[in-house]
Amino acid sequence: MALCRPEVICAYPISPQTHIIEALSEFVKRGALAPCEFVNAESEFAAMSVAIGASAAGARAFTATASQGLLFMMEAVYNASGLGFPVVMTLANRAVGAPINIWNDHSDAMAARDAGWVQLFAQSVQEAADLHLQAFRLAEELSGPVMVCMDGFVLTHATERVDLPSQQAVDAFLPPYEPRQVLDPDAPYSIGAMVGPEAFEEVRYLAHARQLAAVERIAEIGSEFAEAFGRDSGGLVHSYRSADAEVVVVAMGSVLGTIKEVVDAQRAGGARIGALGVTSFRPFPLDAVRQALGGARRVVVLEKSVSVGFGGVLSTDVALALNGLAVPVSTVVAGLGGRPITESALRSVLEAAQGGRLEKLTFLDLKHELVARELERMAARRRSGPSAENMLRDLGIVGAGG
Amino acid sequence: MAPVRFYQVGSFAVGNRLVDRSERTVQSDAGRSNSLTSGHRACQGCGEALGARYALDAAMRATGGRLVAVNATGCLEVFSTPYPETSWQIAWLHSLFANAPAVATGVAAALRVKGRSDIRVVSQAGDGGAVDIGFGCLSGMFERNDDVLFICYDNEAYMNTGVQRSGATPPAARTATTEAVGPHPGNVFGQGKNLPEIAMAHRIPYVATATVADLHDLEDKVSRAMAVHGSRYLHILVPCPLGWGSASSDTVRVARLATQTGLFPVFEAERGRVVRVTPIRRLAPVEDYLRIQGRFRHLFDPEGAVAQPGVVAALQSMADATIARYGLLAGAEAEPRQGTGTGTEAAS
Ligand SMILES: Cc1ncc(C[n+]2csc(CCOP(=O)(O)OP(=O)(O)O)c2C)c(N)n1
Ligand code: SF4
Ligand SMILES: [Mg+2]
Questions:
Q1: Which of A341, B30, B144, B283 ranks highest by number of CB atoms within 10 Å?
Q2: CB neighbours (10 Å) of residue A6?
Q3: Which residues of chain A register pLDDT less than 50?
């Protein structure tokens, strides 16, 4: 991130993002990023607003948040994209409460799905670093904001050897920000006017068109990046041993590491199985996904979020990509609130998929008895008490007292 | 003590030829910037439009035209920029209702990074956008002492959405959410925030209040604010004929009565200390102020007699307390001015 020559960094602390902004604030304080301002915002809403103002005045603006922070800033998140400001934000993916939970899942990113931001998911720390470079490039070309999503703790707090490019190479890849619209007394524009029904739909359509254009640019910038830095990170999707696969697991983020290991193991056992990592969740690359999955007999989407009352979120998009093809899509909701996604659990799900036994919607490792008991309690009594406590008691984690 | 100034008889009108050119109002200068130009959709007699025009033109003069403005959602934003039209002839950005201070912070930070110390930043909002929903951002901006002049156009309610109560709505005032019904009609007593004093508590370099009744004073305060760096706050009382139920032609008169009754103190503060107050030149009873506004109509009966003497007395004692607190009467009688036109008759 620091290599991207940010000019205004503004943030508000929230786990698991804190150390990112701590480090950046230190860089700025030391003068390592000069000229760059670090603004200690009083909230995430303010942080994004500062980024909006900075971007409007022609500075390269960056912020980072997670979970509750993203939701708290949400109005400004929509505003940044509506006004077309190329803010880049790191989202250290974390569950959204209540119940409050600081661990990783993708609920926060899904809540911003329709906010008009490009959302890129990193599979590794290296990819997260690389995606930031591409994010600024993309954002400034499109004049729209980009979110780089990296799994909280799993990636944000991982220590991994990362190959950081030279400043020179980054500068060659990422030219200085040239704003499309800037607050300038010499050329005074009014930015942010009120738009009525006459043109609102068109404005929205243009935002949609910008995202569609991003589908191509994300792929192109990804290739350019690979050429310049010799690493294939970025792009729209990443297939893994899926060319001849009968069952393909689709996922986003760090869980692909585990998935690939399971794929390898099952391949070794003769199973024709592969994986597809979706890097670009928004815009969603329907064609690329269809191409990557069209040959499969069965698709399993493993996602770290749930659309309550419906099921999968990513799965819906994947199913749409496969529209018209006879490829059944199953959703596996996994890893909510940081629940570990173990190889053994994955293996059994994938075996079930290969045997045609996987249901449409599965909650991986769900303690079925536990929820059944609580549902019973809730049905029996209107005031059934706090669910979490009841269940923790059933688990023996909370004493039976009172 | 306010500096002695000359006024035209009967009004504080602009372009006074009796005073030195440098002392004249910005509006008397043919080269004024017309920051907020005609054609906007404000109601007739809108105090906010008047205040904004004077404030921004004064800021433009103070900065030699090197100014960018950030605007919160509200009447000012809505009436000035119905797409594809705009009344702003200055660089202007509207983002959201609650974030105008933070957006301005971002603009100021960017300008600093870019080495554009020549360009200054003004951020503006209505009372709702400053006192209530934008308060967090504003306090943050104050506390960091970001280099922004923040102007609150206080019309004492959420006008843009149809006159609902805000934290700046005075007691007893009728709004759409404090209707003149029940045993205590209108807004309740004992609530509300005094944002200028809260701003002062942040120990920022400059805090001032002004009204559209004394536009020259308003301009002076903008100029003074622009001469300083860091967070500055200007709170301008801007009557709203629609929300206050006052005649469009009475905007200036209502604002003047607000100061002459002592309900609205006009002062300046530096680093948390009041350094100047504008004394009341001719004290008026609160009743005079209340009578000409529909939002206080329930305090009087159809014949014009006071129907709620307790409420009127309570408002009067609020005014008295403000007068005492700021010393608004000190020396007022002692210093008659040449050709002053004050009092309710002045704007007739
Ligand atoms: C987050 C949010 N909440 C509510 C609104 C609706 N809203 C728009 S303007 C406004 C009132 C503005 O009041 P004020 O700031 O006092 O300005 P005025 O219109 O009175 O000048 C409200 C409530 C909004 N735009 N955004
Ligand atoms: S409602 Fe009040 S503040 Fe709004 S435009 Fe009309 S007079 Fe001005
Ligand atoms: Mg208002």
A1: A341
A2: 27
A3: 402
Q: Which residues line the pocket of ligand 2, CB cutoff 6 A?
A: B 42-43, 46, 48, 75, 79, 155, 159, 240-243
- CATH architecture designation of domain A2-229: 3-Layer(aba) Sandwich (3.40)
DSSP 3-state of B31: coil
Residue A151 exposure: Cα atoms within 13 Å on the Cβ side? 29
Query: Ligand 3: distance of its center to the CA of B248 in Å?
Result: 17
Q: How far apart are CA A67 and CA A18, in angstroms?
A: 12
- Are the beta carbons of B249 and B292 closer than 8 angstroms? no
Q: Terminal CA-to-CA distance of chain A, rounded, Å?
A: 52
Nearest CA to CA, how far is B130 from chain A (Å)?
Answer: 14
Task: Give this complex's ipTM.
Answer: 0.95
Mark out the alpha helices in chain B (DSSP H runs). 47-62, 75-80, 100-113, 127, 135-144, 195-201, 215-226, 241-244, 251-260, 286-291, 309-326
What pLDDT shows up at residue B21? 75
Instruction: Name the closest ligand to CA B129.
Output: 1
Q: What is the pLDDT of residue B4?
A: 54
pTM of the model: 0.94
**CA contacts within 13 A on the Cβ side of B35:** 30
| Rounded Cα distance, A130 and A257, in Å | 17
Q: What are phi and psi of A292, to 5 degrees?
A: -70, -25
pLDDT at residue A195, rounded to an integer: 93
What are the beta bridge partners of residue A333?
A303, A363
Q: How far apart are CA B270 and CA B195, in angstroms?
A: 15
Mutate to test the pocket of ligand 1, among B73, B76, B81 (most ligand atoms within 8 A of CB): B73
Among B3, B2, B29, smallest CA distance to B17 is for B29
Domains in chain B with CATH codes? 26-279 (3.40.50.970)
**CB-based contact A191 B70, cutoff 8 Å:** no
**CB of A211 closer than 8 Å to CB of A116:** yes
Q: How many angstroms is it from B129 CA to the middle of ligand 1?
A: 6
3-state secondary structure of A79: helix
What is the number of helices (H) and of strands (E) in chain B? 11, 8
Which pLDDT score, from 0 to 100, does residue B336 have? 38
Percent of chain A whose pLDDT exceeds 90: 93
Phi, psi of A330 (to 5 degrees): -110, 145
Residue B3, pLDDT score: 57
pLDDT of residue B20: 78
Residues 6+ apart with CB under 8 A from B131: B152, B154, B166, B167, B168, B193, B195
CATH topology of domain A237-363: Rossmann fold (3.40.50)
Distances (CA, A) of B123 to A7, A248, A251, B85: 21, 53, 44, 21
A197 shares contact with chain B (CB less than 8 Å):
no
Name chain A contacts of B136, Cβ cutoff 8 Å.
42-43, 45-46
B348, with CB counted inside 10 A (0-12, 13-18, 19+), is exposed
Low-confidence stretches of chain B (pLDDT beneath 70): 1-17, 331-348
**Residue A42 region by backbone torsions, left for phi larger than 0, else alpha for psi between -120 and 50, else beta:** alpha
| Domain-wise residue ranges, chain A | 2-229, 237-363, 368-402
